[in-house]
Amino acid sequence: MALPPAQDAATGKPFKRSRKVVVDVSLCRYAIIKRCLKDRDFRLVRAKKSEVEWDIWWSDRGELLKDARRLNAFQKVNHFPSMEDICRKDFLANNLNAMRKLLPDEYDFFPRSFLVPAERVELQQCMDNDKRGATYIVKPRTLCQGKGISLIQSFQKLSTKDPCVVQKYIHNPLLIDGFKFDLRIYVLVVSVDPLVVYVFRNGLARFCTTPFQAPKRSNLHQTRMHLTNYAINKKSKDFVKSVDESTGSKRSLAFVMQHLQDDHGMDPCAVWADVCDIVLKTLLAIQPRLAASYRNFFGADDVKGRQWGPAAFEILGFDIMLDEQGKAWMVEVNHAPSFAGDSLLDRNIKTPLIAQALDILAVTNETKRSFQAVRIH
């Protein structure tokens, strides 16, 4: 993805300055984000139609920036280079498998995963040796929203020839009202060198729409029993729209934490500490790579990181599952979590989230003015 230069390529004239913070939303489709930006009196523009130099480039896509070195020191983009190292299923599995070999006790939160075809032999040995008839989830390497996922209980059922990740199924998931669920945890990364991360206190719980039964040959095809992906379950006739944060097929993280204490006798503070631990360890696994890529893309001097703040930030979506003992498992990381406001619950969770992120980033027009003053002198 190429970013617009700080001056008009045709005329060579600099873009017009704005007294407001300018955000380019050419590749941002979410109304919640745009509303939060407007609430701060930020000016929203589109690169192809505007001659105004932007302060923030906000994109729903996580593509690498081809000409990020051309950014002025006050400008920010909302993705870090190399974040795909945890946001692509095969890269995530490769990195966390490597860390588990080095620190097995610290990285036991990621279900055992195999990269196919590279680890096809190891997968077969593992499945053949598993006398309990364990279940595995087959995930296409790059697809999202539950597309192409299947469940198998024997190696012979692995029919796909495409590259994929085969991950051990969490056989004893914690249930609420008889349904399997996962937690979408929102994480703001504001710096990669040093690593600075904020984990938002509230988030979403996404529920299956078919009551859970232990996986067996006769129900492996029932994706809405085993897969918590919202994109899959929202199409079910059994999907229940949320009227508040404690009912329906999508609920709040705050409700789940209270439910853990009230109905399961678990300590929500301990669970939350485990979640934060998982987030930090996952990012630490690729921090050297993130730091090197940042320097490569934004310049080795890293002037942005010293005087006007880092040139990038990113909001990630960590998908966490709990088992019946309350152990937290990290399933996936998403570098483009949805900010759609499909329900009042979505809006009540995501609007404060974006507002808090903007508070932390603290972008003001003074940032641009101070840069311009330094450049003039």
UniProtKB/TrEMBL annotation:
Single GO term (MF): tubulin-glutamic acid ligase activity
InterPro entries referenced in this protein's UniProt entry, alphabetically: TTL/TTLL_fam (IPR004344)
UniProt keywords, alphabetically: ATP-binding, Ligase, Nucleotide-binding
Superkingdom per UniProt: Eukaryota
GO biological process, one term: microtubule cytoskeleton organization
Coiled-coil boundaries: none
Cellular component, GO annotation: ciliary basal body
Signal sequence segment: none
Name of the featured protein: Tubulin-tyrosine ligase
Native source species: Aphanomyces astaci (Crayfish plague agent)
Lineage: Eukaryota, Sar, Stramenopiles, Oomycota, Saprolegniomycetes
